[in-house]
Amino acid sequence: MARSLAEVIVATDDPRIREVAERFCRVEMTRSDHPSGSDRVAEVAARCECDGVVNIQGDEPLIDSGVIDAVADTLQRSEMSTAATRLRDARELESPNVVKVVVNSSGRALYFSRRTIPFVRDAASRSTEEQMAAFAFLKHLGIYGYRRETLLRIVQYPVSSLERAERLEQLRALENGIQIAVAQVDYDSVGVDVPEDVARVEALLNR
Questions:
Q1: Total domains present in the chain
Q2: pLDDT per residue rounded down to tens, the chain (207 residues)
Q3: Half-sphere exposure of 127 toward its Cβ, with a 13 Å CA cutoff?
Q4: Around 45, how many Cα atoms within 13 Å sit in the side-chain half-sphere?
Q5: pLDDT score of 167
Q6: CB contact at 8 A, 83 and 70
Q7: Does 96 fall in a domain?
Q8: Number of CB atoms found within 10 A of residue 96's CB
Q9: Distance separating alpha carbons of residues 178 and 157, to the nearest angstrom
Q10: The domain that contains 192 carries what CATH number?
């Protein structure tokens, strides 16, 4: 449904995923030792003729096509892009499974963290709801756009110290001076971060 995509390719190292996915799209098998999804996608991108790649992660099965198009459109003006939305659920503010992002005045990412960022000092002693009213926290959505040459350059860098600490692959790009443009969207994801999320997402898909 995304208008910006020329082709959909599933990149996996698991034959069970290949068996299901090849019924509806092209599948590329990859090595099993990749440290991140970016590295896996780069292996496939190196075999393809394309200008850019959008990495739609498998743990975001409900991703909206409009978000994909927003990330692809933002990539036209940047080396790398991603998406974020206003954090609305107080339970997610402190959750390490929900990644937060802060951006500069040009819409470029300053940092991503599993911690709550920024620290709103004047509201720190207040309730979570009051903290959220005091600042528009941004929730990162698990989708990335890359210029092909940028992606192939990123995976040449070693896993960075911040990437290793936070377990967030996009920090490798930031640590090496690659700017990430952030498309702010209204869509709020329901990702599969822990096993308990599976039943919730399956119910939404069945609906």
A1: 1
A2: 999 999 999 999 999 999 999 999 999 999 999 999 999 999 999 999 999 999 999 888 889 999 999 999 999 999 999 999 999 999 999 999 899 999 999 999 999 999 999 999 999 889 999 999 999 999 999 899 999 999 999 999 999 999 999 999 999 999 999 999 999 999 887 778 788 889 888 988 888
A3: 5
A4: 23
A5: 95
A6: yes
A7: no
A8: 12
A9: 12
A10: 3.90.550.10
**Integer Cα distance of 201 and 181 in angstroms:** 28
Give the whole-angstrom CA distance, residue 128 versus residue 130: 5
| 70, part of any domain | yes
Angle, CA of 188, 194 and 195, to the nearest 5°: 120
Cα 51 to chain centroid distance, Å, stands at 19
d(CA 139, CA 145): 17
Full residue range of the structural domain in which residue 200 is found = 9-85+140-206
- 4 part of a folded domain: no
Residue 177 φ/ψ region, left for φ over 0, alpha for ψ in the -120 to 50 degree band, beta for the rest:
left
